[in-house]
Amino acid sequence: MRAATHDRYGGSDVVTIAEIDEPVIADNQLLVAVHASSVTTADWRLRASAFPGGMWLAGRLMTGLFRPRNRVLGMEFSGVVARTGSKVTRFATGDAVFGNAGSGAHADYLAIDEDGALAAKPPALSHAEAASLPFGAVTALVFLRDFARLKSGQRILIIGASGGVGVHAVQIARHMGAHVTGVTSTDNVKLVADLGADRVVDYRKEDLNEIGGNFDLVFDTAGIVRFARARRLLNADGLFLPLEFGIGDALTALRCAITRSRQRIGLHVSGDAQADVEAIADMAATGALNPVIDSRYPLSEIGRAHERVETRHKRGSVIIDVRPDDEAPAAA
């Protein structure tokens, strides 16, 4: 089968299309014929070994000190079940599914556990639309619902509101009843407003320090601000949630805990649970969550997709069309 592989860390040119063996599934796994995937910020960082905030060594220890342990990237996917293991009961051959495989989605086929982070694809969504949701939407949901415990009526500032996580955070926060202020660039003001933000701040025209300091939550999805700046935007009991953080942020969180500061910084990593994928599937099916696609590339041009993500100016998701929606998968 075709797969986008990389055998060393580096620029987008290290990713090449190669023929590799199809995955061999276990009794509790599905073989999914991938129709669409995406290139996320995580894929870019793993490919380039571009770990933020002094986390290079820790990142390399996890992913491979001298060369990547995992040759095939790709977290998000949407596709059709091509084969099931003998103990699989939830899904059947021919079912359309989507989810977060963790890795391996930049290929014609992937193997995933039946109880992994996947769900039935909402019928109204194309494979490309479904593949845009699992990473960004689940991350936004878990950060807002579980880590921030966002409540109706609270005021939230979302920095990077037009990015892969931000576009979903705006919609989910609004769905939860919060008052949403989104921060983005001039070109994306209308998009963020259309997604449901009550107020949109154009950072090229407005100074964040002058927009007021009464937010219950500052959610930085883009790694733009540090706690020293965020605390000026928070109310007395406010919480700062950065999606990207480093060693300095960890020391700041420790200092806040020791001094029992009412203003806090929360450092978390979103997991991938089946229940969360099912939750965003329900939200998408009811219209509470709409996909936002920046651009689409065929698998053969995945290097260009990496380059687009690395600009850090994408709007929503960068999609990889592994096979067109109307193309039936070959027999596996």
TrEMBL record:
<dbReference type="Pfam" id="PF13602">
    <property type="entry name" value="ADH_zinc_N_2"/>
</dbReference>
<dbReference type="GO" id="GO:0016491">
    <property type="term" value="F:oxidoreductase activity"/>
</dbReference>
<dbReference type="InterPro" id="IPR036291">
    <property type="entry name" value="NAD(P)-bd_dom_sf"/>
</dbReference>
<dbReference type="InterPro" id="IPR002364">
    <property type="entry name" value="Quin_OxRdtase/zeta-crystal_CS"/>
</dbReference>
<dbReference type="Pfam" id="PF08240">
    <property type="entry name" value="ADH_N"/>
</dbReference>
<protein>
    <submittedName>
        <fullName>NAD(P)-dependent alcohol dehydrogenase</fullName>
    </submittedName>
</protein>
<dbReference type="InterPro" id="IPR011032">
    <property type="entry name" value="GroES-like_sf"/>
</dbReference>
<dbReference type="GO" id="GO:0008270">
    <property type="term" value="F:zinc ion binding"/>
</dbReference>
<feature type="domain" description="Enoyl reductase (ER)">
    <location>
        <begin position="10"/>
        <end position="320"/>
    </location>
</feature>
<dbReference type="InterPro" id="IPR020843">
    <property type="entry name" value="ER"/>
</dbReference>
<dbReference type="InterPro" id="IPR013154">
    <property type="entry name" value="ADH-like_N"/>
</dbReference>
<dbReference type="InterPro" id="IPR050700">
    <property type="entry name" value="YIM1/Zinc_Alcohol_DH_Fams"/>
</dbReference>
